[in-house]
Amino acid sequence: MSLGSFVFMLHSHLPYYRMAGMWPFGEENLYECMSETYVPLLNAISELYEEEGIKAKLTVGITPILAEQLNDEHLQNGFIEYLVSRITAVSKDLERYPDDKVPHSQHLKYLAKYYFDWFNHIKDSFVNKYNKDLISAFKKYQDLGCIEITTSGATHGFSPLLATDSNLNAQFKVGQDTTKRLFGKKAKGCWLPECAYRQGYEYIGKDGKKKWRPAIEVTLQNNDIEYFFTESHVIEGGNSVGERRVVGIYGNIEYIPLPKREATGYDTYSAYWLPDAQVAVMGRNDRAGFQVWSAADGYPGDGVYREFHKKDDKSGMNYWRITSSKTDLGDKMLYDPVLAMNQVNSNSDHYTTLIYHLLNDYKKAKNKEGLLMVSFDTELYGHWWFEGIEFIKQVIRKLNNFLPEIERCTAGEYLEKHPPVDTIQIPESSWGQGGHFYVWMNHLTEWMWPIIHACEKRIIEIVSKYEKIPEDKLLHRALNQLARENLLLQSSDWPFLITTWQAKDYATERFMEHVARFEKIADMIESNSIDDNQLKKFESIDNCFPVIDYRVYLPIEEGVIPQQEAKLAPLYQ
User: Fold this and answer.
1) Among residues 72, 268, 67, 76, which one has the least CA distance to residue 187?
2) Distance between CA atoms of 107 and 110, rounded to whole angstroms?
3) pLDDT tens-digit series, residues 83-121
4) Which pLDDT tens digit goes with each residue over 341-391?
5) 3-state secondary structure of 129
6) 3-state DSSP call for residue 372?
7) Residue 36: per-residue pLDDT
8) Residue 570's pLDDT band (boundaries 50, 70, 90)?
9) Any idea what the Cα angle at residue 31 is, between residues 30 and 32, rounded to 5°?
10) What's the pLDDT band for 241 if we cut at 50, 70, 90?
11) Which of these, 370, 404, 189, lies nearest to 280 by C-alpha position?
12) 377 is catalytic
């Protein structure tokens, strides 16, 4: 007898790092996530299916800008160079240990060998098993029914703060088109960048007449997107969330909560229709999500797990364990992979039992089967929580082998079997601190939005003059590159990194680089003096979305907010 359905959603995203630095911010961030998260995740999906006959049934969101980077030859070769450098570095540790002058050097030798084998296995998987092509590997397991791939905004632009529907539509159309091109079919679902949502609203146009700006779900439906995900408080009401991710990602920023909302009477054990389009929304189960993402109480904070922040000063290897949250970095104990794997076994037992009881209790209380959906940054598993991929693998295996009454399914499969019954109006919200837009719109980032909005307006004006693709190939290339730069400057990562001070200078520089390229190309187009060499330089660096059609920016009149009136919109209040 079925107890209900379990949907495990992983949202994979990184900003555009290609040819934009190496370390501490740049391509190496991508390579770290490839080695610690994306390749191990594929290996787990592969091993479950090919060795045990278990379909993982994961819903895997891969943002279009991340997919473009995984598909890029420069970055594929750079990843191999990164792995070789890691293997070389740890090989030197194998030579310097054991050392009688260094405490516990025998264990350090053991750990060096552990990492030597680990990196070589990742390299062998990437080169020989996946032929350097992770996109094709994800597509393979999608086609086998092991995973469902969802899309997102092309460059993870913060949807509610974009001023025009033409630009909002471009984010999701280019995103959906990219997913279809790389994975062979359109995505049914999407991850709203930063889970950021706004309702439709009325505004006064330039002509003095009232106009209506459609809700986000209208743009989704226009791009064949059938569902998205949100936070538990968005569905249930009550207090908004605070920090949603493991410590180390958000940093120390002011916390301004939303006013407490009255309980809605709805829960996250069902999916719901949105009122303005036939698009469904699923809310994250707070209890099951908290058990993983909480920095204080979640599994990743256990003392036996690998310490992310402390690295060997010569090789850069993570040889230490968390020990405790109160232990200074200098006093951390050495990592023990055996102890860590034992703890993964215990944590996965606890988690599968938790899922069982949550669904069982719901069925008893409501006399019907429920949905339990959890969603996380994919990079939490493996990159931030080194043992996290093994945790996912064990949870899938244990649910499959010991709890068949829980239906493991992808989000799309769930909605196909259990279409929503009720319609719900959700509020303006995000999964950032406070549950609103503060992380992306605050005193540190407010200077960015007039620039973004000016670029939105300018590209619409330029593209409007070229409804028909020009015969001039140089002009055509310039228009397409203008579209790429506009998408890239809209990335939500730039204001996020500025607010959190993780990479404030880097993010500011990256944002202004894309703005400068956008303005240079726009000036060349408008003055009819396109510099082929300059354009080629921009194309060689920012080569994402190779088949983009600049006409995606043709104006959508009914949704355009005049620039001077954008601040009147409720999304700024």
Assistant:
1) 67
2) 5
3) 999 999 999 999 999 998 889 999 999 999 999 999 999
4) 999 999 999 999 999 999 999 999 999 999 999 999 999 999 999 999 999
5) helix
6) strand
7) 98
8) very low
9) 90
10) low
11) 189
12) yes
Burial of 446-463, coded b for 16+ CB within 10 Å and e otherwise, reads eebbeebbebbbbbbebb
d(CA 283, CA 431): 11
Structure confidence at residue 257 (pLDDT): 63
**What phi and psi values does residue 561 have, to the nearest 5 degrees?**
-100, 120
Please report, as a single letter, which amino acid is at residue 328: D
CA 190 to chain centre: 11
Instruction: Calculate the CA 46 to chain-centre distance.
Output: 22
Tell me the mean pLDDT in the region 123-128: 98
**Residue 536: pLDDT above 50?**
yes
pLDDT above 90: percentage of residues in the chain: 87
- Three-point CA angle 270, 344, 41, nearest 5°: 70
Coil, helix or strand at residue 525: helix
Which parts of 418-503 fold into alpha helices (H)?
448-463, 473-489, 493-500
Phi/psi of residue 147, each to 5°? -140, 160
Report pLDDT for 296. Answer: 80
**Cα gap 195→433, rounded to integer Å:** 12
Give the pLDDT confidence score for residue 256 in this predicted structure.
60
pLDDT tens-digit map of 558-569: 444 333 333 333
Residue 253 predicted with pLDDT over 50: no
Mean pLDDT of 425-439: 91
Residue ranges in 213-252 assigned as alpha helix (H): 216-222, 232-236
CB 549 within 8 Å of CB 487: no
Place of tokens 């400068």: 516
Using alpha carbons, select from 260, 198, 227 the residue that is nearest to residue 61. 227
Residue 160 preceded by cis peptide, ω within 30: no
**Active-site residue (options: 286, 377, 407, 542):** 377
pTM of the predicted model as reported, rounded to 2 decimal places: 0.94
Catalytic residue among 194, 217, 369, 485: 194
Residue 434 Cα to chain centre, angstroms:
19
Residue with tokens 């969330």: 241
Name all domains of the chain by residue range, CATH numbers in brackets.
4-434 (3.20.110.10), 436-572 (1.20.1430.10)
Q: Cα 138 to the chain's mean position, in Å?
A: 16
- By the 10 Å C-beta count (0-12 exposed, 13-18 middle, 19+ buried), 95 is classed as exposed
Q: Is the pLDDT of residue 157 over 70?
A: yes
194 is annotated as an active-site residue: yes
What's the mean pLDDT when you consider all of the chain? Answer: 93
Closest CA to 493 of 63, 71, 199: 63
Give the sign of the dihedral formed by CA 48, CA 53, CA 58, CA 60. positive
Q: At what angle do helices 165-183 and 473-489 cross, to 10 degrees?
A: 100
Question: How far is the C-alpha of 25 from the C-alpha of 29, rounded, in Å?
Answer: 6
Residue 573 has pLDDT above 70, yes or no: no
Cα(220)–Cα(175) distance, rounded to whole angstroms?
Answer: 11
